[in-house]
Amino acid sequence: MVRSPLVATLLLFLLLAAGNYVTGAEVDRKPNFVMMMVDDLGIGDVGCYGNDTIRTPNIDRLASEGVKLTQHIAAAPLCTPSRTAFMTGRYALRSGLGSTGRVQVLLFLGGSGGLPRSETTFAKRLQEQGYTTGLVGKWHLGVNCEYRGDHCHHPNQHGFSYFYGLPFTLFNDCMPGEESDVLADLQHTLQNMVIILGVCVRVCGLLHISLWLLLALFFLSILATAVWYVPFKLLPTWNCIIMRNQDVIEQPMTTETLPQRLLVEAQNFIRRNVDRPFLLFFSLAHVHTPLFKTSAFAGKSRHGCYGDNVEEMDWIIGKVTETVDSLGLANNTLIYFTSDHGGHIEDANSKIGQRGGWNSIYRGGKAMGGWEGGIRVPGIFRWPGRLAAGRVVDEPTSLMDLYPTLQHLAKDTQPDRHLDGYNLMPLLEGKVDRSEHEFMFHYCGIYLNAVRWHPPGSESVFKVHFFTPNFSPPGAGGCYDTKVCQCHGAHVTHHNPPLLYDILYDPSESHPLTPDTEPRYAEILEQTAKAVERHQSTLTKEQGSDDIHSPILWKPWLQPCCGTFPFCGCKEDTPYV
C-alpha cells in the first residue's frame, strides 16, 4: 500500500515529461511551406478579389481563413523575369535576366540562357536549413549551359531536391491544332524564303545556267528548309517535355492528362514528407494558353474555355489544401497563393473568344511594363493559429518578399546578397501597419519603366511612368496588332515630364496628375529621381554571363532528349488515377 502512491507519482511524472517533450518538439519543429503560383492569372479572375461570375470557392476560402494582400506586386510583367525575382528576392536585372529587344523570356529549352549558377534561391537557403524541397510544375528558368546534360540551370542545381514538371512552359505548340506562338512572324519569313528558293531552283533547272550555281541554290534551299523546319516545326518535341529530376520522361508531352499528373505529384510530395519540414513550390500550368479542355470542367463556367480553366485551377488548389489539412499539417504549414503576373488581355481568337485573364479595374496586362494590370496579382497567406483569419492588408508588397519571409521563418540567419524584398511576417501578423517598401521599381526588360512611391505618413501611393507602350490599334487598351507589347524603340512613348498617378485615388491610372492638381508634384518627381539614383547604384555587372540574350537561338547540343538525339521520344508509364 505504501509503494502504490510512489508508483503512481512516478508514472504521472513520466507522462508529464513525455507530454512536455512532445509539445516542445511540436513547437520547435520548423514550419512547412506550400507555395502555389498560377500562370497568367488576372487579379480580377478570383472571387475574393471582386469576381462574382467565375467560381473560385477554394481560393476564396484561403482568403477567408488567412490574410489577403490587395497591393501585391510582381517584379516584372512576364514569366521568366518575374519568376527569377520571386525565386531570388531580387529584381531579375541583378541576375542578368533582362532583355533589350523583343524576346524577354526563354524561347527554347535548347538555349543557353537561364538562372545563373551563381544565384541563390529560397529553395537553396531552406535546403541548407534541413528542408526537403520540391518543385512540381513549371520552371522556365533554363536547363543547360554548355552541353546536353550539364543541367547548370536545372531546378536540382538551384535548391530543389525533387523536380517533376515542365522545364520550359506550356505554350500553343504543345497542343495539336493550336497556332504557333513562338516568333510566328520569323517562322512565316523563313517559310516564304524556302518557297522562293525552291521556285528559283526549279526555274534555274529549266534554264541554261552554271551547274555550280544550280547546286549552290539547291543546297541553300536545303539549308533554309532546315533552319525553318527543324527548330520550329519540331517545337512540340524540343520544348514540350516533362522531366523527373534530370531525366526526360515524356517527349513530347500529352497535355490532356497534365493537370491531373501535376496535382498527384504535388499531393504525393506532401505525403512523403509529412514527418519532416518541407517546402513545396507548386507552379501550375494553368491558366497559360493553350487552355485545357478537361471534361469535368468543360462548358461549366459562364466565361467559356478560360473560365472553365480558372475553375479547374481553383479545384486543384482546393485538393492541395485538402491534402495538407487531412494530414494534420494545417497549423504548422504556411500556404501561399499568387500569380506570376497579370492576365494576357490581348489573347483571344474566333474559336473560343477570350483566352487571357481579366485584370479588374487596373490598366494594362501581361508584358505591359509598369501598368498596374500586368503586375498587381493575388496574394493570399493562410496559417491557422499564426495568422488572423480574414485579415486584409492594403500596403504595397512584392513577390520578392517571399524569399526573406521564408528565410526568417526557417531561422536562416546566414549572410546574404543584396535583397529587394522584405520579411512580410510583421505585416501579416498585424505587428506593424506600414510596408517596408517605400519605393518599388517596375522594369520592362532591362529598362526602368516606372517607380512607385509610398511616402512615409501618407496613405497615397504615387506611380511615375517614364515611358509607356504604344497600344495598337490606336485607342485600344493593349497591343492587339502584335499580341504582346514591346518596351524598346518605336514601340514605346517616353514622357518628359513623366506621367504621374496616385493609385490610391486613381487605381486605373486614368487621370495623370499635374502641378495644378497635385501640390506635391515637384517633390514626388524629385524624391523618385533620388530613389532611382540610389537603386541604380546598387546594380552591378556581376550577372553578365548567363543572361537572357541568347534564348532566341536554338542550340541542338543543349537540347534535352530522351533517346538518341535527334530521335527523341518517350511516354511516361506511371498511371495517374
Automatic annotation (TrEMBL):
<feature type="signal peptide">
    <location>
        <begin position="1"/>
        <end position="24"/>
    </location>
</feature>
<keyword id="KW-0378">Hydrolase</keyword>
<dbReference type="InterPro" id="IPR000917">
    <property type="entry name" value="Sulfatase_N"/>
</dbReference>
<dbReference type="InterPro" id="IPR050738">
    <property type="entry name" value="Sulfatase"/>
</dbReference>
<dbReference type="Pfam" id="PF00884">
    <property type="entry name" value="Sulfatase"/>
</dbReference>
<protein>
    <submittedName>
        <fullName>Arylsulfatase H</fullName>
    </submittedName>
</protein>
<feature type="transmembrane region" description="Helical">
    <location>
        <begin position="209"/>
        <end position="230"/>
    </location>
</feature>
<keyword id="KW-1133">Transmembrane helix</keyword>
<keyword id="KW-0812">Transmembrane</keyword>
<dbReference type="GO" id="GO:0004065">
    <property type="term" value="F:arylsulfatase activity"/>
</dbReference>
<feature type="domain" description="Sulfatase N-terminal">
    <location>
        <begin position="31"/>
        <end position="410"/>
    </location>
</feature>
<keyword id="KW-0479">Metal-binding</keyword>
<keyword id="KW-0472">Membrane</keyword>
<dbReference type="Pfam" id="PF14707">
    <property type="entry name" value="Sulfatase_C"/>
</dbReference>
<keyword id="KW-0106">Calcium</keyword>
<dbReference type="InterPro" id="IPR024607">
    <property type="entry name" value="Sulfatase_CS"/>
</dbReference>
<dbReference type="GO" id="GO:0005783">
    <property type="term" value="C:endoplasmic reticulum"/>
</dbReference>
<comment type="similarity">
    <text>Belongs to the sulfatase family.</text>
</comment>
<dbReference type="InterPro" id="IPR017850">
    <property type="entry name" value="Alkaline_phosphatase_core_sf"/>
</dbReference>
<keyword id="KW-0732">Signal</keyword>
<dbReference type="GO" id="GO:0046872">
    <property type="term" value="F:metal ion binding"/>
</dbReference>
